[in-house]
Write a structure and sequence with these properties.
By secondary structure, the protein is an alpha/beta fold. The chain is 33% helix and 23% strand. It folds into two domains: 171 residues, 3-Layer(aba) Sandwich (Peroxisomal Thiolase, Chain A, domain 1); 150 residues, Thiolase/Chalcone synthase (Peroxisomal Thiolase, Chain A, domain 1), CATH 3.40.47.10. The strands form four sheets. A five-stranded mixed β-sheet has the order 1-7-6-4-5, sandwiched between helices. The structure holds acetyl coenzyme *A (ACO). One of its GO terms (biological process) is fatty acid biosynthetic process.
């Protein structure tokens, strides 16, 4: 197992105040609390209002992470924002976050698009950049306003997603041995159509017809996605453990992408691990894509489920179809 050279110095999260319950959804579309809870484990999700953009949630999460790390915003020289719901198609929302946080213009800023795996992809990217010695401290943020790309009349998708943000501050490791041990990333680019927004990009620029047809909203093939998600998450978890000479006994907590309780249960079964070893908060947030893993990390730390010295396994899967895993010692 490698000695970490980069570690997480602090974490923070932000959830919009508006809670949207299954009961409220059931009043608007043909669904029920019972159906949603049985199929997904989701009981409620957060929804940001028009006054709160992806960058605003990112800023709130970043401030919390900086405070937790005891690091001033001026010490950050790299800002990576993982999102599939940027404020604008162009430029990167990371630049807006930089401005709102008052970071110096010498900060490198970019968005990273890897959907629900965005945080794990961002962890590898930001850590490598700090490890290069060219950057000292990075802010890695996952922030999503998925409510803006959801068709609220489509019951097969709208019940599953939510809004939120979370951030971590990354910097060089100290003598404690805490830090990022390893990351493994991959993608099944042959399965783009299992989860995607069909129009609005350069292949199909928006037209009045595409807007009227709802082609700017998420489309999903739920059953196929479910199977591939379980297979890819279990595989990448096994791979990263084997590569580092670890077994699941060495892992304190597994933090999976919070897409669906049943996906998490199926991954636990494949790995022959009890569900108690997995952190689950999908019941309160739904699927917040790139924000899901860092929100879970922040909650797990603050609730004492991650203790100093623990090794945590992060496992992600998302549109692309991207996947990835990471090992972090605290
Ligand atoms: N309320 C009530 N009924 C519904 C709803 C709803 N919200 N949505 C679908 N149904 C109906 C369907 O229309 C279908 O009716 P029919 O049999 O009359 O056609 C019936 O319920 C059963 O639908 P299925 O698709 O068979 O339900 P399934 O058990 O597969 O569960 C689900 C659907 C929850 C979407 C499941 O396939 C799943 O979890 N897929 C993974 C999706 C996911 O998590 N996506 C997140 C993004 S991926 C990621 O982040 C990694």
């Amino acid at each position: 197992m490698a000695t970490p050279s980069i570690r997480i110095l602090g974490t923070g999260a932000h959830a919009p105040t508006r809670v949207l319950t299954n009961a409220e959804l059931s009043a608007k579309i043909e669904t029920s609390d019972e159906w949603i809870v049985t199929r997904s484990g989701i009981r409620e999700r957060r929804v940001a209002g028009p006054e709160e953009a992806t960058s605003d949630m990112a800023v709130a999460a970043a401030r919390a992470a900086l405070a937790d790390a005891g690091i001033a915003a001026s010490e950050i020289d790299l800002l990576v924002l993982a999102t599939v719901t940027p404020d604008l198609t162009m430029p990167a929302s990371a630049c807006s976050v930089q401005h709102k946080l008052g970071l110096p213009h010498t900060t490198a800023c970019f968005d990273l698009s890897a959907a629900c795996s965005g945080f794990v992809y961002g962890l590898d990217t930001a850590a490598a950049m700090v490890q290069s010695g060219r950057y000292k401290r990075a802010l890695l943020i996952g922030s999503e306003k998925l409510s803006t790309i959801i068709d609220w009349s489509d019951r097969t998708t709208c019940v599953l997603f939510g809004d939120g943000a979370a951030a971590v501050v990354l910097g060089p490791s100290d003598a404690s041995g805490a830090g990022l041990i390893d990351v493994k990333l991959g993608a099944y680019g042959d399965s783009l159509d299992l989860l995607y927004v069909p129009k609005g990009g350069s292949t199909h620029p928006p037209t009045a017809e595409s807007i009227a047809a709802g082609d700017h909203f998420i489309k999903m093939k739920g059953k196929e996605l479910f199977k591939l998600a379980v297979r890819a998450m279990a595989e990448t978890a096994r791979d990263i453990l084997a590569k580092n000479g670890l077994t699941s006994d060495d892992i304190g907590l597994i933090i999976p992408h919070q897409a669906n309780q049943r996906i998490i249960e199926a991954v636990a079964k494949q790995l022959q691990l009890p569900l108690e070893r997995f952190f689950v908060n999908v019941d309160r947030y739904g699927n917040t894509s790139a924000a899901s893993i860092p929100i879970a990390i922040d909650e797990a730390r603050r609730s004492g489920r991650i203790r100093p010295g623990d090794v945590t396994l992060l496992v992600a899967f998302g549109a692309g179809l991207t996947y990835g895993s990471a090992l972090v010692r605290w």
